[in-house]
Give the backbone structure.
Amino acid sequence: MAVAESGTTPCRSGGGPFDVWVRGPSGGPPDEEYAMPKYMLIMRGTDESNAAMMASIDEAMAATGRFIEEMMKEGVLLAAEGLDEPSKSVVVHFGAEAPVVTDGPYGETKELFGGYFLLDVSSKQEAVEWAKRCPAVAGSQIEVRRVAGSDELPPDYERIVEERAARETTGRG
């Protein structure tokens, strides 16, 4: 692994507030093959699948706990959270005028975002493999989406420079 040079891309696989800088195969930013990307497994349920999960909530929570322990043991879990019920949400609508706040959930949503797992894995395929192992009830879906990093913007972009400095200062790398 090459050591820091300006204009290179940080590896996001380590803990703590420091970044290890590496170059991709062409000397530029690493592509997916060489990067340590973060992926979000977005849990989506329907009214029916959520009701089925709630009918056996103790079993669902135990299975999810085992899944989380497995991801922690493998060192890929960065965060995992569930969301409160949609009826307790609000939606902020942006139009030509000032933003308008209404009670949620948003519109005629049939599938709601109920929670997520944030993983630090080597590829999209690895994230998909973890998603396939997730204990989910019939009718649920898991969307696997790469988390775009600040390292994908120009390295001298003022806001990114400030954010990196703040993370180093606070230890929240």
Q: What stands out?
A: DSSP finds four helices and eight strands in the chain. Confidence is low (pLDDT under 50) at residues 1-34. The beta strands are 9-11, 20-22, 38-45, 77-82, 90-93, 100-103, 112-120, 141-147.
